[in-house]
Design goal:
single chain; 269 residues; alpha/beta; 2-enoyl-CoA Hydratase, Chain A, domain 1; 10 strands; binds ligand LTTK3YTO; menaquinone biosynthesis; ClpP/crotonase-like_dom_sf; 1,4-dihydroxy-2-naphthoyl-CoA synthase activity; EC 4.1.3.36
Amino acid sequence: MLYRVAMRDLTDVRYEKADHTATVTIDRPDRMNSFRGRTVDELIHCFKTAWTDPDVGAIILTGAGDRAFCAGGDVKERAATGGYGETEWGSFEIERLHRIIRDVPKPVIAAVNGVAVGGGHVLHVLCDLSIASNTARFGQSGPRVGSFDAGFGSAYLARVIGEKRARWMWYLCELIDADTALSWGLVNLVTEPGELLDTARRTAAEVNRRSPTALRFLKHSFNADTDHLGGISHLAFDGLDLFTRTEEAAEGAEAFAERRDPDFRRFRR
Ligand SMILES: CC(C)(COP(=O)(O)OP(=O)(O)OC[C@H]1O[C@@H](n2cnc3c(N)ncnc32)[C@H](O)[C@@H]1OP(=O)(O)O)[C@@H](O)C(=O)NCCC(=O)NCCSC(=O)c1cc(O)c2ccccc2c1O
């Protein structure tokens, strides 16, 4: 079934605007703010709304509750259905969301209020700035649950924190804490949990005092240096689409849903 996203129909995401700052909140706390197809469509809708609103100068991305910023793709949905559910156009638009976060000509600030893992970790990495609660944890989990992000999610991450650390994150699938993330340059600031949103709003307010045209050109120029990774992402998402239909990927998702360790031994080549 297809549907059209409209602001009044948002179910998975909240959109608020105050003091020239748009706050986009992933609102699925019972699933650790993981995303399904509809969540991604709604996020795109909110980012486009903020992009085209001349009254908005900066955007904050955060998660509902105090446990999770975003736990990536909804693995339970994938284990049950093999996909990420209904979408506006029948396609899972995560690659478009990545592009919009990079391309929107306004600074995007991640307020990481809890765990940022898998595709949720990629979202904060793509934001211009990241501010974390001291309870936040960060990691990649694809090789544990039968997935990967071989474009911005790996190569751009390596650009941000260095090759060894990025490979460690992807190969071991361990979570790191906020202080380690700060020391790796993965986040800009760490705050007390209760001060996170105020700090993000204050940062957005500072950004809003700067020349929007200068910021727009700076963002594009920062991006230009790594934009070729979009081509790799494109290739990798097509590869991931094929991979998620395999028994190996299903073993990862099913093991997560069944709360057991995956057994990938039979897939070694
Ligand atoms: C996030 C965790 C580290 C949290 O651990 P913790 O011990 O604090 O909490 P629980 O494990 O007990 O979780 C609480 C509750 O939330 C449910 N939950 C957690 N994460 C998810 C999720 N991703 N999807 C659905 N549900 C989730 C969990 O089952 C519990 O529910 P109960 O009902 O049992 O209480 C830890 O939970 C964790 O490691 N989660 C999995 C993280 C993960 O692997 N994410 C997905 C990676 S793959 C991905 O993100 C991805 C991204 C893409 O862009 C894709 C694009 C195209 C195709 C595929 C893609 C893709 O796979």
